[in-house]
Inverse folding.
């Protein structure tokens, strides 16, 4: 049975989730435009941009995919491309598992399908609500729908305007991705107890990025940081 309160109006929570995500949606829009510009430069057609953004809906994986993309279909490294996207998105196994309490036992399959619209931003907002005892499925859905619509629209806009934006870094758009995660990180700060797992995760990610090719550092940093957080929490309760 869900451990989150369910006495709420769906529409109220839906709009609350959408409103809560408005600040980070601005950054999502910025790097959506950047991705669209880069996708045009990599040779993706407008239809391919729409399909990738609509079906994948994972900014980090889509940026990685552009590095492997070729304009010649026969030369497209499908296997490495899928593997790279899988590695980058493996963190969602950890993130979405924390959302399970939102769903009743008879909603697990529908909940699993709904995870397709979960992003780092909407996950962070929803987990914050859950920590306050207010997290709901409708809240998650409201933020997810807004983020999805924003990502779809801005990647298309970026592709359309790509010919006019020759260098995204000149406008500071290349920093939008980093700025979003920094804002989420600060918003989730609960106190000094978070410092150790965050530092451990960052250190593990930095070291693994230097030693292991590819995007494994994202998964390694997440797993090591999670283990450090779990150990720190256990030690606090043991005292």
């Amino acid at each position: 049975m869900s451990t989150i309160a369910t006495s709420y109006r769906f529409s109220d929570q839906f709009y609350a989730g959408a409103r809560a995500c408005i600040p980070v949606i601005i950054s999502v829009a910025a790097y959506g435009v950047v991705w669209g510009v880069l996708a045009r430069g990599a040779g993706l057609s407008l239809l391919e941009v729409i399909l990738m953004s609509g079906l994948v809906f994972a900014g980090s994986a889509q940026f990685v995919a552009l590095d492997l993309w070729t304009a010649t279909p026969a030369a497209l490294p499908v296997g490495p491309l899928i593997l790279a996207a899988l590695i980058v998105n493996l963190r969602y196994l950890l993130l979405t598992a924390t959302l399970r309490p939102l769903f009743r036992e008879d909603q697990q399959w529908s909940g699993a399908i709904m995870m397709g619209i979960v992003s780092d931003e909407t996950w962070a907002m929803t987990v914050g609500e859950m920590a306050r005892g207010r997290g709901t499925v409708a809240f998650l859905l409201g933020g997810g729908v807004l983020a999805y619509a924003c990502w779809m629209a801005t990647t298309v806009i970026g592709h359309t305007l790509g010919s006019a934006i020759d260098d995204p870094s000149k406008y500071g758009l290349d920093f939008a991705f980093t700025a979003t995660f920094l804002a989420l990180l600060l918003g989730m700060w609960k106190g000094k107890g978070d410092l150790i797992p965050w530092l451990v995760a960052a250190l593990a990610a930095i070291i693994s990025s230097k030693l292991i090719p590819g995007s494994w550092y994202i998964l390694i940093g997440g797993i090591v940081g999670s283990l450090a957080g779990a150990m720190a929490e256990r030690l606090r309760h043991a005292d």
Summary: The CA atoms of residues 43 and 71 lie 5 Å apart.
